[in-house]
Amino acid sequence: MRRAAISxxxxxxxxxxxxxxxxxxxxxxxxxxxxxxPNRLAAAVxxxxxxxxxxxxRFVMGFGAIGLFILAVSRQRMSAAVALLSLWAALVMLxxxxxxxxxxxxxxxPAATRVSLASGAWLAMLLLASGIGWAIQVCxxxxxxxxxxxxxxxxxxxxxxxxxxxxxxIAIELQARRGEVTTAxxxxxxxxxxxxxxxxxxxxxxxxxxxxxxxxxxVAGGIQVVPAVALLGALVALTSSLLTAVPAxxxxxxxxxxxxxxxxxxxxxxLLPLWRGxxxxxxxxxxxxxxxxxxxxxxxxxILLQVRLPLGSPLLIGALRVAAVQSLSLATxxxxxxxxxxxxxxxxxxxxxxxDLILLGALPIIGLSLCAxxxxxxxxxxxxxxxxx
Amino acid sequence: MSGxxxxxxxxxxxxxxxxxxxxxxxxxxxxxxxxxxxxxxxLQRLSRLAGDHLLLxxxxxxxxxxxxxxxxxxxxxxxxxPIRRSIDSLAAFAQAIPPVVVVALALPVLGFGGPPTxxxxxxxxxxxxxxxTVGALESVPADAREAGHAIGLSGAQLMLQVxxxxxxxxxxxxxxxxxxxxxxxxxxxxxxxxxxxGTPIIAGLQNQAVLPLMQxxxxxxxxxxxxxxxxxxxxxxxxxxxxxxx
Lengths: 389, 246
Hints:
The complex is a heterodimer. By secondary structure, chain A is mainly alpha-helical. Chain A has helices spanning 9-30, 52-73, 77-106, 119-139, 144-161, 169-176, 178-207, 213-225, 228-245, 248-251, 259-282, 287-295, 300-331, 342-352, 355-386, and strands at residues 34-37, 45-47, 114-117.
């Protein structure tokens, strides 16, 4: 059906590789790497390649560009491994250089001085990290990605312990709020997890109501159209009016603000992906397979557990993945209705106009979502390989 | 349900919600529920907020549509399957970052108001549109393409006269999703100080004022339903015209 010879593939790859390398060099040359402010709320004055960081940047550019060029021209596993090492070296040098650079900038200034990472540093780290991800893909080694991620996390933790980042603003902010951040992460997971659980229970119940499927589909689809801020607001308004009308409920511990409406709100959005996943997943097994199972004398429950669920598992896990990522993402907004979670740190940061505080909330949210996406994505891929739908 | 029925249902739901957000009606309902009386958001201010909301969402949609559909067309020109897969995984990763977080991260860089919201709109909306466009263009049957080649159409003619018309319903469907996403993101933008229908919601939540909260909620949902109904109706029209094309 498709043209067999895909002539432009290498050209596309080369364009992407060269483009990334060029962007990396621009980020390191033209954008500020660090910014310095007299205190944590003042606007930062950008700092380019001054002091210790100037020499490091040249090496970062060299190693980074070499790694990306290798990826641009070759798809060999060995050369991808070389590219991986080169990019890794560039990333390590960049991070160490930024830590050192921050110390240099802060030296001899008042204790309230804050040195923060600026746009060039973030962009360069992002580009190097995506280059590493690309190299890992080309290497085609099982679990290489997980190993690299773990090594990176361990290195970051060790560097943090070793006082490398002590002069970077975000590390100082984290130091001051370590307990708060940990609590917020746990709250966030609890919110997203309970919403996912509630959504699953509702989806299973609704998909077993065979007569009302059209109605369920229309309602679940309609909910998707309502903006999340509006749905959360509506839930708070409803609960609040209900509490005014029936004050006895307040004594039972119900309140208009808090995790209650937040969990219900998130679960409402998860209904569509979960319900649709269940419906299509359980329909994967075709009629002949079901007939064969019946002929073997399997009961209705056995058919469900031994035939329908395994055959539909890739679709079911896929739906779960979409719902989990959505749940983690929506849990951020729930800080608006007083449910806590990482969103509260983000909103605090917005209220104070403190960029590092915003990052402190935002980075764990992105990390959690990406973890859920990759983890469930790899389980989904395995299920698909195990029983192709 | 037929496409037209669906569109009509959503439009009616939107109209009903819009009525509920009217200051007098909302005030009467809230008073009937026994909430303490508060000053409602006036009709003039509400319609101005709705106008700003729609303008920001449409501006975002326009950028997203041009970039997403444009890159989608370019990406399918190379005729390579693996591009589709990388776009899919890139889209999944981009989707993992919630729009609130993009708004929050853009705030220190772009300041209060519309710009951070617009950036979040573009950042969040572009990958789904790109993915949908590529999907729609790839679903164009190879026969149609080959027939176009056979009658001597050039690459650009093939694109404009064969592929785009056949892919139009799919592309329109993605743009509908993008518009709904844009309206939701703009509502969140109220947190960054953009003047949108999210503003009375946020204010209502902060001051525990049910009346503006309800008005903002109903008006935002009404806008989303009305836009969705309109896009569904448009998609239905395009599909019908495509079906009756000789």
